Amino acid sequence: MSPVTLSDRRAPTGRGINRPAQASGIKLATATLASLIALLGSTAVQAQAPAPTESAMVKLIRGLIDSGALARDVGEALLAQAQTEAMAAQQAQRQASTAAAQPQPGTRAQAGDVRVPYVPQTVRDQIRDEIKGEVMAQAKAEGWAAPNETPEWTKRIRVEGDLRVRNESRLFSGGNSNIQSDWAKLNDDGPYDVNPNTSLSLPPLMNTRKDRESLFRIRARLGIFADLSERTQAGVRIATGSDDSPVSTTQTLGGGLGKKEIWLDQAWLSHRPVDWLTIVGGRFGNPFFSTDTLFSGDLNFDGIAAKFDKTLAANKDVELFGTVGVIPLEYSSDSFPGTSQDKMKSENKWLFGAQMGAAWKVNADNQLRGALAYYNFSNITGKISDPCALYAGADHCSTDWSRPAFMQKGNTLMLLRDIALDPTDPANTPMPQYVGLASKFRLLDLNFRWDTKAVGNIPLRVDANYIRNLAYDEDGMWRRARGGIVNNFGNTGGTGQADFESGANAYMLQVTYGKPSPSARGDWNMLAGYKYIEPDALPDGYNDSTFHLGGTNARGYFLGGSYAIDKNTWFTGRWISSKEIYGPPLSIDLLQLEFNARL
Q1: Are 290 and 447 in contact (CB under 8 A)?
Q2: Which of 572, 574, 570, 563 is nearest to 528 (CA)?
Q3: Which stretches does DSSP call E strand in 207-317?
Q4: Per-residue pLDDT tens for 308-350?
Q5: pLDDT-based confidence at 541, cuts 50/70/90?
Q6: Which of 44-53, 221-230, 263-272, 475-484 has the lowest mean pLDDT?
Q7: Mind spelling out the 3-state secondary structure of 49-86?
Q8: Across-strand partners of 575?
Q9: What pLDDT is recorded for position 493?
Q10: Which of 14-23, 196-205, 248-257 has the lowest mean pLDDT?
C-alpha cells in the first residue's frame, strides 16, 4: 500500500471559528482525530480486530461538538469527511478480503483466513504528522492558536539600561586660591548681603585645597521604549542622581546608607511622517551631533526637535543630516512676585538650535562625519532690576527671575539688584544680592569625526570640536552690568575692566584607539585628549561635570582606557588633569575607576 497524502483531503477553512480561547480544545480534537486515523491504518494488520465503525467516529465528533471543543461548522465538515473516509476504508477492506480469498500459487487457503496488506509504522506516522501539520498551520494562519509564540505586543517593546559603579578621587593643588566663591550656592541659598558694613560672614566658598578620595558613586538608568507603529515610537527612562542637576545622573553613596533617589530622565514621543524626517517631543536625549565640551553626555533636552537624514541618490556613500530644536530652558513663575498684587510679565528662557552635517563613507576603512551648528540661548543673560527699596520691607526685586536656574562655574557674573539706599543710614543699608550671567550666548559649533583603521586593522577614531561665542562682547558686558562684574579678574587684585579677563573660544581634540564602545569580551580601547574652554565661550551649566568639575575657564588633558571582561561588561580607567585659564589658580586632578554593564 502506497503512502497516503492529505493534499486532496483538506477540511474547510473554518472561517466560523472566532474563539481563540478554544484553541486548546481544537488542538485536543485534532490530536484525537489524528490518532484515530492512525489506528484505522494499524487495524489493517490485526486480522481479528474489527475496524472502528462509522457510528463510533460519528459519536466522537458529535461529542466534541456538543462539548464546545469544536465549532459546529468545523465539526460538521469533519463529520462529513469521516463518513466519506470510513465508507472508502470499508470498500477497500472488502476488496482486499476478496483478493486475499484467492489462493496464491504454492499456498493452501484455510477457511476463515483473511489476508490484508501490511501498513508500516512510518506510513501511519506520516499520516498523523501531515494531519497535525496542516491543521496547526491553519489554526495559526486564522488566529486559533500560535504555539510557542509570545504575544504580538511584546515584540514592539524593548527594555534598555545600564549600570556603572565608580570610585572617584578628587585631588586639589595646595597652591590653589582658597577664596573662590561658590556662586551657584550663593544663588541657591541667597540672596547674600554684599555690604561689608552689615554682613560679617563670607559668601559660600568652594573647596579648592582638600582632597576628596575614594568616593564610591553609582549611575543606574532603565528605559522602556515602544514601537507603537512603523512610524511612531515612545520612550520613558528613569535614572539615579544626587540632585536634579541636568548634567549628571551619578549618585554618591554613603549618606548613612539611606535610600537613593530616582528621577524621570526621559519621556518622549516621536513620529516619522516621511522616511527622512523624525519629529520628537517631550524630554529626550541630545538630538545634536556634539561633544561633552558643550553638552554633557547625561544631558537631556526638553521641548521639540525635528531630525532629518537623507542618503544622496547620486552617491549612496554620502548621507546628509540635520536637526532643528526648540528647547525651553526655564519658564518664569506664574505667581512672581508672591507678595505683590502686580505679577511680572512672562519671561521665558529658550535654546534655539539648528545643525547641518554630512557623513561620507570614503571606503571600507575610512568614514568622515562633520556638522556645523548654531545655538541661540535666548533671554538667559542677567538684567539689572528697577530700584528696589528692600530697607522699606520689599522682599524681591524685579529681575530676580533672571538668575540661572542651574550653573556650574566659569562664566562672567554680574550683580542683579539695584538696591535703593536707606536715606537715614545709607552706609549701613543691607544689600542682599543675586548674580546672573553677564554675557549673551550665540554659539557657532563645528564638529568633526574621522573613523579609520590603524596598525593591525585596529579601529582609530579622531574627534575634533571648535566653539565660538559670536555674541561675546566685553564692553557690552560691562555696560549691561553697570560695572557690577564680580569674577574673572586677574591676579592683580583689581576689580575694574582693566583687570578683567575672559574669552569666547573653546576647542577639544580626542583620539580613541580600539573599539570606541566595548561590547564583546576582549574589546578594548585607549584614548587621549585635550580641552580648552574660555570663560564665556559657552554657558557653563550644560557641559561635562567631570572635567575641572564642570563649567568653563578650564584647560587640560585627559587619558583613559576600557577593557571588556564579558559581553556588555567592561572596566574603565580615566585620569583628568585641568587648571584655570584666567584668574586665581585652581588646579584639579581626577582619577576615576569604573565597572560598567549594559543591558
Answers
A1: yes
A2: 574
A3: 212-227, 232-240, 251-252, 262-274, 277-285, 300-311
A4: 999 999 999 999 999 999 999 999 888 888 777 788 888 999 9
A5: very high
A6: 44-53
A7: CCCCCHHHHHHHHHHHHHHCCCCHHHHHHHHHHHHHHH
A8: 559, 591
A9: 81
A10: 14-23
Instruction: Write the CA distances from 467 to 146, 183, 329, 421, integer angstroms.
Output: 57, 24, 20, 42
Q: What share of the chain is helix, strand, coil (3-state, %, to 5)?
A: 20, 35, 40
What's the distance, CA 303 to chain centroid?
16
Query: In this predicted structure, what is the pLDDT of residue 151?
Result: 75
545 DSSP 8-state letter: S
Q: Give the separation between CA 487 and CA 182, rounded to whole angstroms.
A: 11
* Residue written as grid cell 491553519: 138
φ/ψ region of 550 (left if φ > 0, alpha if ψ in -120 to 50, else beta) reads left
How many whole angstroms separate alpha carbon 429 and alpha carbon 197? 8
Beta partners for 263? Answer: 239
Q: At 452, list the grid cell.
A: 579609520
pLDDT at 5: 40
pTM: 0.77
CA distances from 379 to 23, 404, 408 (A): 64, 10, 18
Alpha helices, H only, 109-199:
121-141, 183-189
Residue 373 to residue 351: CA distance in whole angstroms: 13
Angstrom distance (rounded) from CA 56 to CA 43: 15
Radius of gyration of the chain (CA): 39
Least confident among 123-132, 261-270, 441-450, 464-473:
123-132
What are the backbone dihedrals phi and psi of residue 282, each rounded to the nearest 5 degrees, phi first?
Answer: 120, -130
Q: How many helices (DSSP H) and strands (DSSP E) are in the chain?
A: 6, 21
Closest CA to 565 of 528, 514, 523, 513: 523
Whether 43 shows a pLDDT value over 50: the answer reads: no
- Residue 57 grid coordinates: 467516529
Please report which helix (H) or strand (E) contains residue 479, including its range: helix 474-481
Q: Are 187 and 407 in contact (CB under 8 A)?
A: yes
Q: Are 70 and 32 in contact (CB under 8 A)?
A: no
Cell output for 360:
561620507
Cell triple for residue 521? Answer: 569580551
The rounded distance, in Å, linking the Cα atoms of 414 and 436 is: 5
Lookup: cell for 193: 548681603
